[in-house]
Amino acid sequence: MPTGQIRKALSGFYYVKHDGQVYQTRGRGNFRNRNITPLVGDWVEFESSNATDGYVLEVLERKNELIRPQVANIDLGVVVTSCVKPNFSYNLLDRFLVTLESKQIQPLIYVTKMDIASDDVRAEMTEMRAYYESIGYPVLFSEAGEKDVLTDYFKDKLTVFMGQSGAGKSTLLNKIAPELELEVGDISEALGRGRHTTRHVELIELHGGLVADTPGFSSIEFLEIELSDLPKQFPEFLEASDYCKFRECQHLKEPKCEVKRLVESGEIKQSRYDDYLQFYEEVKTRKPKYNKK
């Protein structure tokens, strides 16, 4: 039974790529009963007698998934944030990073509008970059020479874009892939279905990897992270926690907390700790979700 990857989902059809060919398939009838919804990015087992008439039989285990955009098995999340207009927000950046960490997605920070930044803003962004790179996050600025480096990260990865409203996510995607519309059209035409104007997610082959052709969410609520897991989504907290007095230290009011000591000494950025406290409160006070019968 062949295994392929869903590259596009549209109007009840799943377009599965296998051995260089795309197959139009439908989902198996019992998926609904089993509460399974195949997603773009899923690896699936399928059967097909021809390129336009097949069935997805089984969805293989995912390593992660996002709701917006609806994509599974993501390797890299490019967080697009502007330095001005709208102004840079540590809080919003940390929201994206925590969400990506919780899904085991490698984040990359991309700062736009550096060409119109004042000297003070440039200095702040340089300081921001030094700190976030020190805790393991690559940071790129939208300047000559740097924006070209972004595509080097795509190779052998499935990449999605996300970030604040007005930061220029769509503009950046179009610059990276001016041929994007052409590629989407080619795939649709090859399947004999013409061009679709419906907004859907599609994976585009780009620079040796796959890139979701639509940007993701611009605001985030922590709907899935548990309180006990939240501190583990901050890499510098996780590293410091080995030296906390209590094994499951929440870095709040516990004595001999290494995280709080490093915040006081300036080795952990105050804004990161402040954001952690805010996120902790949000997770603690969120309303429980009830499944509809």
Automatic annotation (TrEMBL):
Binding site for GTP: 112-115, 163-171
Enzyme class: hydrolase
Cited Pfam families: RsgA_GTPase, RsgA_N
Positions contributing to Zn(2+) binding: 244, 249, 251, 257
Main location group: cytoplasm
Subcellular localization: Cytoplasm
Assembly, per entry: Monomer. Associates with 30S ribosomal subunit, binds 16S rRNA.
Biological role: One of several proteins that assist in the late maturation steps of the functional core of the 30S ribosomal subunit. Helps release RbfA from mature subunits. May play a role in the assembly of ribosomal proteins into the subunit. Circularly permuted GTPase that catalyzes slow GTP hydrolysis, GTPase activity is stimulated by the 30S ribosomal subunit.
NCBIfam families per record: ribosome small subunit-dependent GTPase A (TIGR00157)
UniProt protein name: Small ribosomal subunit biogenesis GTPase RsgA
